[in-house]
Amino acid sequence: MLAILPIRAGSLRVKHKNITLINGKPLYMYIVNTLKNVDQIDKIIINTDYEIIKESFINDPKINVMDRDKKLRGNCDINLVIQQVLEKSEGELFLQTHATNPLLSAETINSAIDYFQKHKDEFDSLFSVTKVQKRFWTEKFVPINHSITEEPTTQNLEPMFEENSCIYIFSRTSFFKGQNRIGSKPCIFPIPKIDSVDIDDVEDMELVTKLIA
User: Fold this and answer.
1) Across the beta sheet with 63-67, what order do the strands follow?
2) Among 41, 54, 102, 104, which residue's Cβ finds the most Cβ atoms within 10 Å?
3) What domain range is 105 assigned to?
4) What's the CATH code of the domain at 144?
């Protein structure tokens, strides 16, 4: 299995987010080190337009750094980046994650791969989710998943599942069938909340810094 790690230079909410130092280490190195500890991953393909990252793994046999196409730099559809990687790589099974998932563990990744391998006759892809049981409201303060006249305890609410952007597993076949990392018969895979932290903004960065310390 090949791991795809897209790392783009542009970041709108946190400047140079992917290379920001967290406790003395660039953010992207946390997930890189995790992926290197996943036995089922044969190679890590980093797709990036960061020169500093291209120079960091010249002598690492498990990592292949791929220069991102100029037309894909900046904010773009992640599926276009994956397409570039697949067109320039061999292999049938792929796992994609992000540099903004520094708390994602090797154990959780291994569990996701094992689950997909055991159920690949039922599903063509897998993506990780976080189970949520909270009361949700619209911006006009209309309850979405509960009634204010009943106010059930949160543990009795019907669970909702948030796509947390941590793990996507798919085959070459399923990707090109729909041009999407989520296939036509996907499986959702709940992961621990601590693993699912995704850095979107400055507050997320501050939270992760405290958790990693």
Assistant:
1) 63-67, 43-48, 2-7, 93-96, 160-171, 125-132, 186-190
2) 104
3) 2-212
4) 3.90.550.10
